[in-house]
Amino acid sequence: MDNVYAPGKNHLFVPGPVNIPDPVIRAMSRNNEDYRSPAVPALTKTLLEDVKKIFKTTTGTPFMIPTTGTGAWESALTNTLSPGDRTVSFLIGQFSLLWIDQQQRLKFNVDVVESDWGQGANLDILASKLAEDTAHTIKAVCIVHNETATGVTNNLAAVRKILDHYGHPALFLVDGVSSICALDFRMDEWGIDVALTGSQKALSLPTGMGIVCASPKALEASKTAKSVRVFFDWNDYLKFYKIGTYWPYTPSIQLLYGLRAALDLIFEEGLDNVIARHNRLGTATRLAVDAWGLKNCTQKEEWFSDTVTAVVVPPYLDSAEIVRRAWQRYNLSLGLGLNKVAGKVFRIGHLGNLNELQLLGCLAGVEMILKDVGYPVKLGSGVAAACAYLQNNIPMIPSRI
Ligand SMILES: Cc1ncc(COP(=O)(O)O)c(C=O)c1O
């Protein structure tokens, strides 16, 4: 029984977990199967080939692990680094903070580069650290591509450029949890050594699969990395890849069929079109926020995120009340402000299986809530600004022309 029933559809606008497309739900509605039968390895083989496309890699080796983004982090770190290794890691919001905490608990020597929440990674400091590090003590640069807590997207191409400028051999480890499949992401071109994502974000699947992709250099590093790892050991996967059965332990059959359907939908739309759609959703949201007279938590345009917008509320309002009201009165789920920005921002997630008219429903809901809590918003202002932009920019649906 759904004990929180409300009529109609819940407007799910948290930045993950996101809406699951109906064809994916149908594809997952099936019995368990013997994963040692020939069918599952055959399916797995196509998935391993096809997930490379969402990372934009031909040389990477993917691992589809029964875990979440947090486990994918651990897989990336423990397979490539040894305790005591120095990492440079950027602290810009709650998820980069959690990744840094994991690095510290795994006993790496973490060189934290902190910025105000709302700013991107400070790449000038990275450059000076790399310039000083002629002995190459820095073993990895760890960065969250899209900080989901603040709606900040970091410039990965710029990180690669800095590494190359100093000819620094550090591994480049990237959390793409709220970016891959939604934002421009180019593993090979940007020389990323480990990239990772979680199934419940832009892939629009249930939670439960972490996808980690390792470059040849990362695989080489895994041969000497001394961190203790058992469940996450890439070697166990590689052994089963070699013999063609693929799984060192039991995969979720339903998630595998779901992933097949999710990838088929993404390829049918076209990955570049998916990215362009996210840009429209992000732009429309930002226009609405401006029209409401509110501020984006993201402090500069170069860091604006097309997957999540953190909206700063005036000091006399509690953003948690906005999120609570959204759910209680309008059946709209918004993201809370986390940690340092708790009470100060609410987040609109605009990623995954979502279209523009759905977003307009969310924006209309936010306007009514703002009015409910005493913010002097002109009803329709944000929706009108978003519509004016979208009406000029939504392309025809290719399969319907
Ligand atoms: C950028 C980012 N990294 C990592 C995580 C952690 O992922 P999970 O909750 O799936 O463990 C999240 C979760 O929202 C995230 O947004």
Name a few traits of the molecule:
401 residues, Aspartate Aminotransferase, domain 2, 2 domains, seven-stranded mixed sheet, three-stranded antiparallel sheet, 13 helices, globular, pyridoxal phosphate, SP_NH2Trfase/AEP_transaminase, PyrdxlP-dep_Trfase_major
How many domain units?
2
Arithmetic mean pLDDT = 97
Low-confidence stretches: none
Number of strand elements: 14
Q: What is the CATH topology of the largest domain?
A: Aspartate Aminotransferase, domain 2
How far apart are the termini? Answer: 41 Å
Can you say what the CATH homologous superfamily of the largest domain is? Type I PLP-dependent aspartate aminotransferase-like (Major domain)
Helix content: 40-55%
Helix-strand topology string: EHHEHEHEHEEEHEEEHHHHEEHEEHH
- What gross morphology would you assign? globular
Name of the CATH first level of the largest domain: Alpha Beta
> Strands across the major sheet, in which order?
2-10-9-8-5-3-4
Question: Given the structure, what is the number of helices?
Answer: 13
Q: Identify the bound ligands.
A: pyridoxal-5'-phosphate
Largest sheet: 7 strands, mixed
Radius of gyration (Å): 21 Å
Oligomer, anyone?
Answer: single chain
Roughly what fraction of the amino acids lie in strands? 15-25%
Pfam family, one: Aminotran_5
Family: Belongs to the class-V pyridoxal-phosphate-dependent aminotransferase family.
Protein name: alanine--glyoxylate transaminase
Organism: Aquilegia coerulea (Rocky mountain columbine)
Can you walk me through this structure?
- This protein is of the alpha/beta class and 401 residues long.
- The chain contains 13 helices and 14 strands.
- The protein has 2 domains: 11-18 and 270-400, Aspartate Aminotransferase, domain 1 (Alpha-Beta Complex); 22-267, Type I PLP-dependent aspartate aminotransferase-like (Major domain) (Aspartate Aminotransferase, domain 2, 3-Layer(aba) Sandwich).
- Helix 2 crosses helix 9 and helix 9 packs across helix 10.
- The longest helix is centred in the last third of the chain and has 21 residues, at 271-291.
- The protein is globular, with a radius of gyration of 21 Å.
